[in-house]
Amino acid sequence: xxxxxxxxxxxxxxxxxxxxxxxxxxxxxxxxxxxxxxxxxxxxxxxxxxxxxxxxxxxxxxxxxxxxxxxxxxxxxxxxxxxxxxxxxxxxxxxxxxxxxxxxxxxxxxxxxxxxxxxxxxxxxxxxxxxxxxxxxxxxxxxxxxxxxxxxxxxxxxxxxxxxxxxxxxxxxxxxxxxxxxxxxxxxxxxxxxxxxxxxxxxxxxxxxxxxxxxxxxxxxxxxxxxxxxxxxxxxxxxxxxxxxxxxxxxxxxxxxxxxxxxxxxxxxxxxxxxxxxxxxxxxxxxxxxxxxxxxxxxxxxxxxxxxxxxxxxxxxxxxxxxxxxxxxxxxxxxxxxxxxxxxxxxxxxxxxxxxxxxxxxxxxxxxxxxxxxxxxxxxxxxxxxxxxxxxxxxxxxxxxxxxxxxxxxxxxxxxxxxxxxxxxxxxxxxxxxxxxxxxxxxxxxxxxxxxxxxxxxxxxxxxxxxxxxxxxxxxxxxxxxxxxxxxxxxxxxxxxxxxxxxxxxxxxxxxxxxxxxxxxxxxxxxxxxxxxxxxxxxxxxxxxxxxxxxxxxxxxxxxxxxxxxxxxxxxxxxxxxxxxxxxxxxxxxxxxxxxxxxxxxxxxxxxxxxxxxxxxxxxxxxxxxxxxxxxxxxxxxxxxxxxxxxxxxxxxxxxxxxxxxxxxxxxxxxxxxxxxxxxxxxxxxxxxxxxxxxxxxxxxxxxxxxxxxxxxxxxxxxxxxxxxxxxxxxxxxxxxxxxxxxxxxxxxxxxxxxxxxxxxxxxxxxxxxxxxxxxxxxxxxxxxxxxxxxxxxxxxxxxxxxxxxxxxxxxxxxxxxxxxxxxxxxxxxxxxxxxxxxxxxxxxxxxxxxxxxxxxxxxxxxxxxxxxxxxxxxxxxxxxxxxxxxxxxxxxxxxxxxxxxxxxxxxxxxxxxxxxxxxxxxxxxxxxxxxxxxxxxxxxxxxxxxxxxxxxxxxxxxxxxxxxxxxxxxxxxxxxxx
Length: 979
Description:
Blueprint: E1 24-29, H1 33-42, E2 51-56, H2 66-71, E3 78-80, E4 85-86, E5 92-94, E6 99-104, E7 107-112, H3 121-133, E8 137-141, H4 150-158, E9 162-166, H5 175-181, E10 188-190, H6 192-203, H7 220-237, H8 246-260, H9 265-274, H10 276-286, H11 297-314, E11 321-325, H12 332-348, E12 354-360, H13 363-371, E13 373-375, H14 384-390, E14 391-394, E15 397-400, H15 402-405, E16 408-412, E17 424-429, H16 438-451, E18 452-460, E19 473-477, E20 482-485, H17 497-509, H18 511-538, E21 541-545, E22 551-555, H19 573-576, H20 582-595, E23 599-600, E24 604-607, E25 613-623, E26 631-638, H21 645-650, E27 654-655, H22 658-750, E28 753-757, E29 763-766, H23 797-807, E30 811-816, E31 822-830, E32 839-846, H24 848-861, E33 866-870, E34 876-879, H25 881-889, H26 902-905, H27 912-927, E35 933-941, E36 944-954, E37 962-968, H28 970-976
Parallel strand pairs: 1-2, 1-8, 2-5, 3-5, 8-9, 9-10, 11-12, 11-17, 12-16, 17-18, 23-27
Antiparallel strand pairs: 4-7, 6-7, 13-15, 14-15, 18-20, 19-20, 21-22, 21-26, 23-25, 24-25, 25-26, 28-29, 28-32, 30-31, 31-32, 33-34, 33-37, 35-36, 36-37
Helix pairs in contact: 1-6, 3-4, 7-9, 7-10, 8-10, 9-10, 11-12
């Protein structure tokens, strides 16, 4: 049952459990939600103090990559939920595939997803979160199809939590955002990247002190602000919220103040005065449409078995059944009761007219209910059989069928201010009275009692009572709150203080008019009383009947002539008259109705209850009306004196010969019965044949329809899941494309010829450098490597590839090519996954320069002279073996990177003049002043004096440098020099 007329939220735990004082942000997304989720989490800090739970429609047949994808957009850890996992702040919790999730206290609970039926995981989690965390719950609805999340969003708003939705224009699929926005309860509609900061803004607010109601001593300024707020609400929507319980009204006002960041009630009242949008939002907060189909199924089952079945069985074919559902919200309860009545009529095989009045104080709710279009969320409330029988599918919505909709009238109505409906067989007012103040509750109950017809039923909510009206009702079922009225209130009702004041004002303004009217009413009452005395004194006791021979009015005392038997009460005359009079009366009335002439019966003797007998005649007359069908009047004329036969024959009323009339009537009925039997038999045979064909066709259609509906639901669910998987795959493909680009660029930078082949030696990939060795091009991918000529001087190359693929071991060797280059061939096994067929990758590293350098080094090492290569700074870059051995023998640095001349012979190599001459000569070479430099000098070592010839020349190369050689000329020098 909705709570709209009550204007406040359902009772719930005011705060969350003591151990859960952090906010929980539940994010619901479906098709197209991956991009929105990434943008949402990108705008959140790593430490916000709130926990995040992501609920998606995931495919049960595919492993979700959502954790890896979201982890790249948030600094918070991202975990996949396991049953019983604690909710922790600053962590993202992901729903696993093939599961539905709820929350109990601060733990997440998982249950298997129904593989056949439609499940709404976002609705389920939002509802559980609102129940457990109350005002600490935050719901965010992102891109998706359908309406999952709408019912749960209402629960979060009802609990005092924050509700946000993605801007539909920014969503790839706007079904879910638009559905939740249509409730009018969303606190913010923003693009995904702005929703994160909005959540942080809400979380970071300091707790505000509660506004105390007037009874607790609120200050004069706040009292004035509160009164101003109530006045604005009443002026704008015609609803006086002063009639509602202050605590719950204050709680909803405080929530709007927190959403709008207003520090106190005085400023909020000023905001309301200038912002009609916020005033409408506050009114919607106070009129939350928390409702559902068959809410509290056990109570509705009791209502159907007691009140509804009784009403249908006792009602005549042409007597309408009248039902009133005040506070109907968006119509779910009204449609539920209408469905129960339709089912009861089908069981009883009686179809009296049904008129159900569904009223609500909010026009938006009236319009919504009147449309009769509901989201797919009702599949969790309405059984598949009822969905099949009373609804039809239109897109992602269910529409009530016309056979139910035509029985319901939706209207705007305020239970506390507008006059009530009347002559109702059933009034259903559930979970509405508990939000009124005590005096308003009593006034509303009086109105409901006034609305009920004698013997009518009242259906209340589980937390509601009859208060002071206990003695006026009897409990049909106390637990289900089904009551039946005992004492009907027929007096005019108090319609509220405002109405009384208007009536009082009118009375003072027109005293003469009222005095004259009172005198007219007194005269009319006297005339009516006189007519009543004359009727009782001279007119015979009579009964006024309608065309169906049902009692409408009684003239005089009929206690002698009418009997009320056991069982259900009826107005059928045949069941009210004694057995001695009933057949005679029926014959008279039947003939009078057909001929419109008055008829009198013969004298009849009737046994009275006290044992005596009375002789009387029955007289039937037709009562013609200007409009409508004629009525009948049956009079009882006691036989108080002998009847003059001559006078009787001359009378205008014919005395009917009952024996003759009975005989003629019987013959006529027998002929009609025989003809009817023959016609009926033929009709039955035709109907049986047609019924069998229709039944077979109907069964086939029902089976086909069920299969199509089931297939449609499965396809829709699979479509959403595939879209989610596709989005994840697109993200993965983008990552792979980047990796592929990195690999291509790395291969180009390395400039190494490389080819890839699969297990069948089919070419799968190659680098541009490979084209210098193999005659291949881009279009050759997929061809066998054996089909291509190559420049390799290695006939065993293909056999080498096969061995590597078979053995899974790497091999390498140097080979020559026809281009004169030398290559290091390395062949490695290559497999994408374990236990899959291997391929191979072959790389060709050009080592020609390396081998030339090694050959040059060998040539230098074979020379007896000491040879070194220096750069322009005198640093040794290359030496031969003779230099290295000489330097080692004379404690010189000698190695690469050392400085010349210390690198050759250390401190003993040159004296100061020689070293200066050497440096000047080298500088001249480096500067280009000379082309060569030579000198002869002695070397004084531990083994005595030795003479060397030093020669230096520049290296003709782009990097420059000097080549230096030292030749031992001791023997030559001593032989040429005189002793």
